[in-house]
């Protein structure tokens, strides 16, 4: 399997502060399932932001799909972003749009024909079990329903990587189980998953997942698996 993400000696500081992340060097392999863990404030969200190109590192190199994205001209960033679906910690749904219209957004922005958008949205609503809530606005949806709208919106463009920040943070165990099934089905279709979570039960359920643990601003990788994933030469 191909290396899809590569960080080399990446460091990040905000403003003039201390580095919040240092010396991150790891590779992610296409089709794998990764959890990012670490205490609150460890830098999980910051790492994910660099991965989905919302934050440039202050040092080091990041290659996405084989391209150096740190020196990439701004105009080329949206093309790379489209290949990465993001489920934000706070969902970021548009409150005045229906669930269906929120899910449709990435396709409408990309200029996809309306007939195709409608079919894809119906398929996504069915997949996340929200067909009967298609017309509901986010403020009238439960936390778990909003989370599923956010997941559907993140995957409707068929991203190669799905990044999710604390996706089970605000849902009960049954809903966490349901979300995990959605993630597992995507991973089964070949999507690379990168999920930041504190949820040890969630982690325990995915035996095949690899762990990225951040502590003291650094990545702990006791097995060396992230540095040299199977199938890749050191
Ligand atoms: N925009 C910012 N400006 C300044 N400091 C920031 C910014 N974003 C994050 N930080 C700091 O960087 C560190 C890492 O934050 P980050 O949100 O990445 O951690 P986290 O592991 O995702 O935390 P949590 O689990 O609580 O969401 C923290 O000390 C935080 O205060």
From TrEMBL:
PROSITE patterns, alphabetized: ABC_TRANSPORTER_1, ABC_TRANSPORTER_2
Topology within the bilayer: Peripheral membrane protein
Compartment list: Cell inner membrane; Cell membrane
SMART domains per record: AAA (SM00382)
CDD domains hit by this protein: ABC_MJ0796_LolCDE_FtsE (cd03255)
Any one Gene Ontology cellular component term annotated for this protein: plasma membrane
Keywords: ATP-binding, Cell cycle, Cell division, Cell membrane, Membrane, Nucleotide-binding, Transport
UniProt function note: Part of the ABC transporter FtsEX involved in cellular division. Important for assembly or stability of the septal ring.
Quaternary structure (record): Homodimer. Forms a membrane-associated complex with FtsX.
Family assignment from sequence similarity: Belongs to the ABC transporter superfamily.
Official protein name in the record: Cell division ATP-binding protein FtsE
Organism: Sphingomonas palmae
Organism taxonomic ancestry: Bacteria, Pseudomonadati, Pseudomonadota, Alphaproteobacteria, Sphingomonadales
The encoding gene: ftsE
């Amino acid at each position: 399997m191909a290396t899809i993400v590569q960080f080399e000696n990446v460091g990040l500081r905000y403003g003039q502060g201390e580095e919040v992340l240092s010396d991150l060097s790891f590779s992610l392999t296409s089709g794998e399932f990764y959890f990012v863990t670490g205490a609150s404030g460890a830098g999980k969200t910051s790492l994910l932001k660099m991965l989905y190109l919302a934050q440039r590192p202050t040092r080091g190199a990041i290659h996405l799909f084989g391209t150096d994205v740190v020196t990439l001209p701004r105009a080329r960033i949206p093309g790379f972003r489209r290949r990465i679906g993001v489920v934000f910690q706070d969902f970021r749904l548009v409150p005045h749009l229906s669930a269906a219209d929120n899910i449709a957004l990435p396709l409408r922005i990309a200029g996809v024909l309306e007939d195709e958008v409608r079919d894809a949205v119906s398929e996504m609503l069915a997949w996340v079990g929200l067909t009967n809530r298609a017309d509901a606005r986010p403020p009238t949806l439960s936390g778990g329903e909003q989370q599923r709208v956010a997941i559907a919106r993140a995957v409707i463009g068929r991203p190669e990587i799905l990044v999710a920040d604390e996706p089970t943070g605000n849902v009960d165990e049954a809903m966490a189980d349901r979300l995990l099934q959605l993630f597992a089905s995507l991973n089964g279709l070949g999507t690379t998953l990168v999920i930041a979570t504190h949820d040890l039960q969630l982690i325990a359920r995915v035996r095949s997942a690899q762990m990225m643990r951040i502590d003291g601003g650094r990545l702990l990788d006791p097995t060396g698996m992230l540095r040299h994933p199977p199938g890749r030469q050191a």
